[in-house]
Amino acid sequence: MSKDAAQAHLDTYLAQVHRHLKGLPDAEVRETLAELRSHVLDKVAGDMSVGRVEAAIAELGSPREVARVNVTERVIADLAQSRSPLRVLRSVGRLASLSLYGTFAFLVTVFGYGAAVGFLMTAAAKPFFPDKAGMWIYRGADGDLNFSIGLNDAPRAHEVLGYWIIPVGIVAALVFGWLTWRFGVFSIRLMGRRARRAR
Q: Hey, how many other C-beta atoms are within 10 angstroms of the C-beta on 88?
């Protein structure tokens, strides 16, 4: 009975870890859970009692923390294979739900890449929509001064760059894209260092 209770305790713990392993492929989830189970069984050394299992689990840490460390380490391993902007965005997205900083990094990354795409699309659209594509300043209904980039047909909007939006948009897209990519790589490495310290 004690062995069954200890096994149930271990299964419950692994199920809680499983819930926090979102973003990992199924094969990696199974591998992570198998490693954790093996670690606990090695620690109890054949004495499968509730007390020994609880002690082994306590050494591992909370299910959320164990999942955060494992996901972060796997994301860093993926990043070592390729550091393309899309891979960095996907990696930051996988870490977003694991910590407050991960969420912040994901939002900054999405905003940065979004700004880069916006500038690039505006530059590309200018020759085809010269009166609608550009960088705009206009007063809103509340009287506040507004700024936008892209397509705009508001009657009181004033386009400020003209065809200069093409080189400015391309340069701005490259700068935003590069800075965002560097921030994403930095954030992943930072979260990796924190995860290693937590072990």
A: 23
Dihedral sign for Cα atoms in the order 83, 26, 104, 60:
negative
pLDDT tens-digit readout, 163-186: 999 999 999 999 999 999 999 999
pTM of the model: 0.75
- Amino acid at position 102, single letter: G
Neighbours of 6 (CB within 10 A): 21
Measured between its terminal Cα atoms, the distance across the chain in Å is 32
Query: CB-based contacts of 140: which residues, under 8 Å, 6+ apart?
Result: 146
Helix, strand, coil: what percent of the chain each, to 5? Answer: 75, 10, 20
pLDDT in tens, 26-42: 888 888 888 888 888 88
Q: Could you tell me which residues are beta bridge partners of residue 138?
A: 146
Query: Beta-carbon neighbour count of residue 179 at 10 Å?
Result: 14
Q: Is the pLDDT of residue 118 over 90?
A: yes
Using CB atoms within 10 A of its CB, is residue 119 exposed (0-12), middle (13-18) or buried (19+)? buried
Q: What is the DSSP string of 37-97?
A: HHHHHHHHTT---HHHHHHHHHHH--HHHHHHHHHHHHHHHHHHH---HHHHHHHHHHHGG
> Is the CB of residue 95 less than 8 Å from the CB of residue 191?
yes
- Interval 29-56 mean pLDDT: 83
Alpha-carbon span 9 to 13, nearest angstrom: 6
